[in-house]
Amino acid sequence: MKQPVPTSTQFLPKIVSVMAEGYGLRALRADLVAGLTVAVVALPLSLAIAIASGVPPDRGLITAIVGGFLVSLLGGSRFQIGGPAGAFIVLVMATVQRHGLDGLALATFLSGMMLMAAGALRLGGFVKYIPYPVTVGFTAGIGVIILISQMRPFLGLELAGPEPGPVLEKLPALWSALPTLGILDLLMGLGSFGLILGLRRVAPRFPGMLAAIALAGLTVWLLKLPVPTIGSAYGGIASGLPTPALPTFTLAKVRAVLPDAMAFTLLGAIESLLSAVVADSMTGRRHRSNAELVGQGVANMAAACFGGFCVTGTIARTATNVRAGAHGPVAGMIHALTLLVMVLLLAPLASAIPLAALAGVLVSVALHMVDIRAIVTLARTSRAEVVVLLATLGMTVLRDLTEAIVTGLALGSLVFMHRMAQMGGVDTMMDETDTESRPEDRGQTRQTVVLRLTGAYFFGSAPVIENVLDRIAARPRHLILDLADVPLLDMTGAHSLTGFIRKTLGLGMQVTLAGPRPQHMEMLRAAGLPAEAQTAPDVGAARALLADREAAA
After folding, report:
1. Residues 6+ apart with CB under 8 A from 252
2. 3-state SS, one letter per residue, for 158-223
3. What are the two backbone dihedrals, phi and then psi, of residue 82, each rounded to the nearest 5 degrees?
């Protein structure tokens, strides 16, 4: 049985525990190798995610440097790597389109405050209650949106006007622009995607994404190819961090960006804690979910002050960190510092990276987000859960992520309640021919009937009891309600049960409750349990009570 995390350590950053264990040269060497490895992976992803989100590419690097450093320094996971994530592309792009870069910074800052509050209120443990089909569905939906959003740079298409945001408007616009397809852009995109895919198969430890954009940039620079690059589209990348400043706060602006901030918070909490769980499963360690949320909150607030955007735990980079042999959070801090050094030294070279190559990087990320194996498994094992998955996926693509998660949670809850209701039942035992009943329930005469309730008795299963009298062939004088196998009773179930008891007493029967739990009795009394109803510790004691009553009569 898992022991609860002591209150004194729930908010303690993991780095404190790691240092308390003793941190030597061997651990530093392991973290150094892992940090350098993750930085090589994070560089192309940070650039690509920023551009796909509709913000300048250096904002992605700022997010990875500032946010990544603080996530490792203050978070509750030993191996978490923070930075910009593909899952946020859709939300960030929509926020920029509605409120601009200033609005994005404010929404990110507010999201950081909300994440800190969620951690302080110890809400970290609630993320585990999100059903698996919902997480698979919205992750796949985000992957589909990213894939569609990268078709314009991947194919080198030229649109007559701004690219539409909604998928149903974007697809016709892309289709009508197909005659403008750029062969060089397509070759760059296919080459980057193919190289990443090939290296992932033959040399999974090799930094395929960095190799792809480096090779593409070198090709464009040497051959002077006329394709859009970071330099031509954004004027290059700043070689350093900007001066930090708080986002502009006004009441009107806070109200305007609040829904976006809430969406950032919801997705950030889910993504970060899922990533921490993945790291736990790979290492056998345990993260501190509330400390992780607090650390993520501080990281988002700091990133917003430097001009970055949403920071979250990133599953792919965290898994890379674990596989590279990281010892603890210092690896994540080294990853952030390495990215800073790369920005200072290599920023001028990044201008030659073609946008089509970065689109190839994100196409590989998007396809990886659509977990075909999980979808097929759910389709084979549970039709109800695959409906939840498809509904979440569809809402993500056609509406927005917040509505998708709410819809998925609602459908998942309905599926769960239906299954719980099916698990409950009522067994009727009256005589020795009832071979299905327990041995202690046999030997009953038709003067006494034992109704044994099984399973959770809540609002979803309450109707089961309401037709029970019709199933009793002859109304007995005595009725024993065996509640020993009822693990859960809610107020709806309590009202249903007390109503049944009142009806039974009104028909002249005597009612005894056998084996009710103390908390169930409190709820039944609150629901108006008649005083005439007797209680007994178990069915045997209930029978003895009835026998004594008969003898006294």
Report:
1. none
2. CCCCCCCCCHHHHHHHHHHCHHHCCHHHHHHHHHHHHHHHHHHHHCCCCCHHHHHHHHHHHHHHHH
3. -100, 155
Give per-residue pLDDT as tens, 315-344.
888 988 998 889 999 999 999 999 999 888
State pTM to two decimals. Answer: 0.75
Helices 315-323 & 25-52 angle (0-180, nearest 10): 160
- d(Cα 78, Cα 532) in Å, to the nearest integer? 59
Q: List, for residues 438-480, the tens digit of each pLDDT value.
A: 444 444 445 788 888 887 777 666 666 556 545 654 567 888 8
Question: From the CB of residue 215, how many other CB atoms can be counted at a distance below 10 Å?
Answer: 15
What dihedral do alpha carbons 148, 187, 355, 44 form, nearest 10°?
Answer: 90
Instruction: Report the C-alpha gap between 544 and 553 in whole angstroms.
Output: 14
Sheet with 534-536: strands ordered across: 425-429, 448-454, 478-485, 510-514, 534-536
Burial bucket for residue 211 (CB in 10 Å: 0-12, 13-18, 19+): middle
Report residue 393 as tokens. 């996926």
DSSP state of 435: T
Tell me how far apart the alpha carbons of residues 272 and 288 are, in angstroms, rounded to a whole number: 12
Element spanning 512, H or E: strand 510-514
- Contacts of residue 499, Cβ cutoff 8 Å, sequence gap at least 6: none
Letter for the amino acid at 336?
Answer: A
HEC per residue, 473-502: CCCCCEEEEEEEECCCECHHHHHHHHHHHH
Q: Smallest Cα–Cα separation from 150: which of 101, 192, 121, 106?
A: 192
Q: Do residues 335 and 42 make contact, with C-beta atoms less than 8 angstroms apart?
A: yes
Give 248's DSSP letter: P
Q: Phi, psi (5° rounding) for residue 483?
A: -105, 15
Report the pLDDT averaged over residues 387-397.
Answer: 91
**Positive or negative, the Cα torsion across 133, 135, 139, 145?**
positive
Inter-residue contact 393 to 138 (CB < 8 Å): yes
Give tens-digit pLDDT for 241-298. Answer: 899 999 989 999 999 999 999 999 988 998 898 888 888 888 888 899 999 999 999 9
CA distances from 507 to 448, 479, 501 (A): 14, 11, 10
| Spatial CA neighbour of 137 closest among 127, 148, 145 | 145
Contact criterion met (CB below 8 Å) for 502 and 530: yes
Task: Tell me: pLDDT of 362 over 60.
Answer: yes
Are 309 and 260 a contacting pair, CB within 8 Å?
no
Cβ–Cβ < 8 Å for 354, 188: yes
**Identity at 453, one-letter amino acid code:** L
Pairing assessment for the beta strands 425-429 and 448-454 based on DSSP bridges: antiparallel
Work out the average pLDDT over 49-60.
91
The position carrying tokens 């005659």 is: 179
Q: Among all chains, which residue has been given the structure tokens 């009298």?
A: 469
Per DSSP bridges, beta strands 82-83 and 534-536 are unpaired
Cβ atoms of 247 and 396 closer than 8 Å: no
Q: At what angle do helices 330-346 and 315-323 cross, to 10 degrees?
A: 110
Cβ proximity of 104 and 96 under 8 Å? yes
